[in-house]
Amino acid sequence: MKLSSNPRICLVLLSAVGDVTHALPIVNAIKRHRPQSHITWLLQEAGASLIQGHPAVDEILLFQRKAGLAGFVKMAMELADRPFDVVLDLQCYFKATLLTALCRAPVKIGLDPSRAREFNWLVNNHHLPKRPIQHVQEHFLEFLDYLEIPREPIEWNLGPWPPELEWQTHFFRHFPSPRVALVAGTSNPKKDWIPDSWVRLNDALHEQFGLHPVLVGANSPRETSLGKKMLQECRYPPKEALGCGLRRLVSILDGCDLVISPDTGPLHLAGALSKPVIGLYGYNSPARVGPWRQDSRLLVDAFHHAGEEPQMTFQHRPDRMSRITVEDVLAKVEIWKKDLV
After folding, report:
1. Which helix (H) or strand (E) covers residue 215, if one does?
2. What pLDDT is attached to residue 24?
């Protein structure tokens, strides 16, 4: 289907920093081909903090998840006087399904029933063509195909934006290059790497490659515990920037030469900033959620067995992260330094 010249569009994608990052090429492409369009995005707090001020997003409606039923009532009231032409239902979770149902629009586009979950297909009257499971970024780009909008060039326009450059300069003022960002942890401890390995890696990066690490991530108990451990045990303690917020995280990642990260949102932010990423994967299949369009030689893949074909699967493989050694990661850093710098 083709959009009108000035459509009112609503994106329903509430959470997960990685998913929000993957959705940015959609809004940029729509604005590129329909500059008079008006794009509203339904988001929770974390995603809203990342997207606030993005030039392709005209309006953010904040869904207050912690408010429970009151959050849905508030959103229903806000949506009541906002008619849309098209709703893009990008998230197959029940709360997103309920919010999509509350949207007023003649066209609601979602996944085909074979790929949708939690009754998501019931609230949409248009569905993407049935396809096998593929990388999350590719899955999002299918919405552009359905709207007959060219995908390329893929653009995130994530920043850092002009008002943020002064902070970035100040942050790195006394921090020499080359720099490597170490992403401390994830929202799921089963995707985290071993703390002792981070300590050993940090010092090896400094001693063997002259890299200056900066530790980034949220301020969860696991991440702050890792930060304290590294500051106490590393011979060359990293610059610690845990809990800096997503917009400042964008500035930090942008100022680094390399990013090393498990399967979490900052990994995809780094990819959107065109930074080389060494991804550490064991719990989830990197074929589906790994770094997108990155040099595959930098991937540390403990999810797959040796010689196993890449699996496009939602299956988890617990306890695989512990199989990743410091030497595995350093071998990838060697590839980066030799071939990609």
Report:
1. strand 212-216
2. 98
pLDDT for residue 104: 95
- Average pLDDT score over residue span 31-59: 96
Domains in the chain, CATH or no CATH each: 8-146 (3.40.50.2000), 162-340 (3.40.50.2000)
Whole-number Å distance between alpha carbons of 11 and 14 = 9
CA distances from 309 to 282, 285, 300, 304 (A): 15, 11, 15, 8
Spatial strand order of the sheet with 107-110 comes to 59-62, 38-43, 8-12, 86-89, 107-110, 126-127
315, 285 in Cβ contact below 8 A?
yes
Instruction: Return d(Cα 248, Cα 250) in angstroms, integer.
Output: 5
* 27 has a pLDDT exceeding 90: yes
Q: How far is CA 56 from CA 6, 38, 96, 156, in A?
A: 14, 9, 22, 10
* pLDDT tens digits, 67-103: 888 888 999 999 999 999 999 999 877 888 889 999 9
